[in-house]
Amino acid sequence: MNTHPSLSGRALVLGGGGSTGNAWLIGVIAGLRDGGLDATTAEVIVGTSAGSTAAAQITGADPTELYAATLTPPPAQVGSPFASARNRPAVDHLARTDAIIAASADADDMRRGMAASALALDASSDETVQARWRATVAARLPRTGWPAQRVLITAVDARTAEPVMFDRDSGVELVDAVAASCAGGFAYRIGDDAFIDGGYRSNADNADLASGCERVLVLSPFGGRTRLPLTWGLDLATQLEQLRAEGSVVEAIFPDANAEHLFGGNAMNAALRPDAARAGYAQGRERAEQLAGLWG
């Protein structure tokens, strides 16, 4: 298959998508496996936000068991790790970030705005909130150590607004890397540094990090949609076009139209996780045979 000798290996790209997106990713991967395609054997796994959690989960536990766990609705949460230390009303993060995007001249400007806004939130300096968020993330991971295969976790440095990619050689614990990648509200601190959601690196998927891989499978809970201007060239479609231009064989799975209501504005509704997981599982089983040639 490889007509480009410079390319090698397989990459699995797991996009962001909130709580339901994470469940959908787990469902797709479990469905693919039950259909004969084990996506967890990828030499490179790219995880962004909810996808970073999924990356840590599927490399630390059996996808079938993870899928079964998503089918039980989680207990209602009391309080939130994102709550302000001063108990102010919750910030409307979507409106806040939409306004930043609208006021930005380019991607660098957008990242600077997102970083400054996140650092300004009370929770960014509250030790209790920071510790609660880390504990929340740690509870979702089956193991705390980095896996043997190459897992890339995306984030943005809140101090410099520069894109960041964590891996096992970064000197950062896996739970901290995931907590940083999922920090969609306040900035998550690791030592003297602080980070925000990896979805602000380029998009919710960051498929460009699969560059150099011969075969690429992208699972995108948001269906490749972006809130950024297309003129910035950071959308998933542009990244996939570039990967193909480099010689990679690329396939993507997006949620079916009849499951789209589970994402977007409902992405943080944990009660919808079972439905999202089932939808993902059905898609994985359906696509497994078709994609078998891609995985090899």
TrEMBL record:
Protein's name in the database: Patatin
The entry's keywords: Lipid metabolism
Record lineage: Bacteria, Bacillati, Actinomycetota, Actinomycetes, Micrococcales
Domain PNPLA positions: 12-204
InterPro entries documented for this protein: Acyl_Trfase/lysoPLipase, PNPLA_dom
